[in-house]
Amino acid sequence: MNFVEKRKDLAETGAVDASQADAVGKAEAKTGFFRKRYAWIGTVASLLLLVASAVVLWKLSEEITWAKLSAALTAVTGTQLAVAFGFVAISYFFLTFYDALALKQLKLKVPYRITSLASFTSYAVSFTLGFPLLTAGTIRYWVYSSRGLSTAKIAALTVIAGFTFWLGMGVVLGLSLIVEAGQLAGLAFTSIRVNQGVGVAALFSVVGYLIWVSIKRRYITVKHWRLELPGATVSFSQMLVGIGDVCAAAAVLYVLMPSEMTLGFSTFVAIYVLAAMLGIASNVPGGAGVFEATIMLALSYLPRGEVLGSLLLFRVCYYLVPFVVALAMLGIYEVGRRLRRHRAANDP
Fold first, then answer.
1. What does the alpha-carbon distance between residue 49 and residue 56 come to, in Å, rounded to a whole number?
2. What's phi and psi for 74, nearest 5 deg?
3. For residues 238 and 171, what is the distance between their CA atoms, to the nearest angstrom?
4. What residue ranges do the domains of the chain occupy?
5. For residue 178, what are the contacts with CB-CB under 8 A and spacing of at least 6?
6. 276 with 169: CB under 8 angstroms?
7. For labelling alongside 163, which of 63, 254, 302, 338 has CA 20 to 30 A away?
8. Backbone angles phi, psi at 308, to 5 degrees
9. pLDDT by residue (tens digit) across 35-87?
10. Are 117 and 140 in contact (CB under 8 A)?
11. Strand ranges (DSSP E) for 254-314?
């Protein structure tokens, strides 16, 4: 869509008046120019991060033998696995409220059972396969479109859910870096002041955003959709949900770690969040390789074979098992929907 078409579309939809449409169109044309010209930078950065992580992971794994890895996997107790799966359930439970809060913001009423199905299955599949806009978006559309939601509403829902994730990550990272600045300095090869500075910046960003959306209604433009951002009440709820999800996910890996680990949970959460953020930046499904390399580097004082075994079990518990469950749930949902259609068609 060119500038003239963009201006006409915005003005005709009534979202903005003609002068505002001109401003929006010009801004988006300028943004689009820079995005096209410098789009390669993000791709190169992701590739460099992936290559560097692969090299680090290879170096750290050189001393690991199959015997050591097998021993590490078999050393995990049934109690550890039970607790880990308990935290998996808690984390995915929090994830269902990502969609629930987004639907509340959009003033859409969808039964929680449908919301939880769409949310759980979309995240479980996208975490494993990657390409969240395609995989999670397709599943959300499959489930929500049958409830009358348009493509635009589903896209808006996805954007708002993303805000929930980053609000939670920002708070957890900020608090962890401030509270555990000293211990993290040795593990992450940084300084106490750097950790505290980054932590304060992260918290200020979250607080600043909450203040910004509380003053008046705020909007962002996605393509030609004008989306109202959640106000202070919903944003604060998003923050709490995001914190719960991140902490529960980190707890899954924490309980699977070898008994030699002496780190407190708040310190470990900071390492987990940093590894997760680097994994997201790499654009690799589940941050595979990047996530592991970061964790192993930060916990290099522990036996590498045992740490890698814990990471592999984490992948199974948090990614593989929910992925299989999600596929089964989607299959059952589709069969049930087809049966209902068949009965409706045959009813006199």
1. 11
2. -80, -15
3. 11
4. 1-37, 46-346
5. 195, 196, 199, 200, 203
6. yes
7. 254
8. -65, -40
9. 555 555 555 554 554 555 455 445 545 555 556 556 666 778 888 899 999 99
10. no
11. none
Pairing type for strands 225-228 and 219-222 reads antiparallel
* Distance of alpha carbon 317 from alpha carbon 329, whole angstroms: 17
The span from the CA of 75 to the CA of 70, in Å, is 9
Predicted confidence (pLDDT) per residue in 292-340, tens digit: 888 888 888 888 878 888 888 898 889 888 998 999 998 888 888 778 7
Token pair of 15, please? 């979202």
pLDDT tens per residue, range 87-140: 999 999 999 999 999 898 888 899 999 999 999 999 998 888 777 777 888 889
Q: What span, in angstroms and rounded, lies between the C-alpha atoms of 144 and 161?
A: 15
**The residue type at 2:** N
Residues 194, 301: Cα–Cα separation, whole Å: 22
Which structure tokens are listed for 111? 């039964």
**Facing residues of 221 across strands?**
226
In this structure, the number of other CB atoms found within 10 A of the CB of residue 148 comes to 9
Q: Alpha-carbon distance 57 to 133, whole Å? A: 28
Q: What's the pLDDT score for residue 89?
A: 96
Buried b (16+ CB within 10 A) or exposed e, 265-296: ebbbbbbbbbbbbbbbebbbbbbbbbbbbbbb
- Residue-by-residue DSSP string for 183-203: HHHHHTT--HHHHHHHHHHHH
Helix and strand element counts for the chain (H, E):
15, 2
Per-residue CA distances from 311 to 60, 94, 108, 273 (Å): 14, 22, 39, 15
- How many Å apart are CA 177 and CA 181, to the nearest integer? 5
